[in-house]
């Protein structure tokens, strides 16, 4: 019985240790609002699809702490975003700026599709359809094809 109680005590204490809540102290409601907006706008570099407010990754915890520290240093929202971009790259924003690299990522697939279509059209022009069909037929089948084509022209 003592072992069962000990087991329940360990599970209960371990569970409460995992569910630690960050206690943050803000100077004003506006600062708290800005903090929440920034943590929703910045992406976790480790989780990739989570913002830093929802992520439990260590890097997200550090980023939240840095956001709070920069807010308490009276940095503007844009200055904090610029700091995070300088440190972690454009990936930390959900709306990265248009650069030469992002333009290439969007245009390259389209160019490859058009190039493929161009190659197919060019090959089709070089070899007429009759040549494709006639090259696969023997002499008897070619004669029969010629007769059918002549009948069609007469009609």
From TrEMBL:
Q: Does the keyword Cell membrane apply?
A: no
Q: Where are the transmembrane segments?
A: 103-121
Q: Does the keyword Repressor apply?
A: no
Q: State the signal peptide span.
A: 1-19
Superkingdom: Bacteria
Please state every residue range assigned to the domain named CcmH/CycL/Ccl2/NrfF N-terminal: 8-149
Give the record's family classification. Belongs to the CcmH/CycL/Ccl2/NrfF family.
Q: What is this protein called?
A: Cytochrome c-type biogenesis protein
Name the source organism: Gallibacterium trehalosifermentans
Taxonomy of origin reads: Bacteria, Pseudomonadati, Pseudomonadota, Gammaproteobacteria, Pasteurellales
């Amino acid at each position: 019985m003592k072992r069962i109680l000990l087991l329940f005590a360990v599970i209960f204490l371990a569970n409460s240790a995992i569910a630690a809540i960050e206690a943050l102290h803000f100077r004003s409601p506006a600062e708290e609002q800005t903090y929440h907006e920034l943590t929703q706008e910045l992406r976790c570099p480790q989780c990739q699809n989570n913002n830093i407010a929802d992520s439990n990754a260590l890097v997200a915890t550090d980023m939240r702490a840095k956001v709070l520290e920069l807010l308490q240093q009276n940095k503007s929202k844009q200055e904090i975003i610029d700091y995070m971009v300088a440190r972690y790259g454009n990936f930390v924003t959900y709306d990265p700026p248009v650069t030469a690299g992002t333009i290439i990522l969007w245009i390259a697939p389209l160019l490859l599709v058009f190039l493929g279509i161009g190659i197919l059209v060019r090959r089709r022009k070089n070899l007429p359809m009759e040549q494709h069909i006639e090259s696969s037929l023997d002499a008897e089948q070619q004669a029969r094809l010629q007769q059918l084509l002549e009948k069609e022209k007469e009609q």
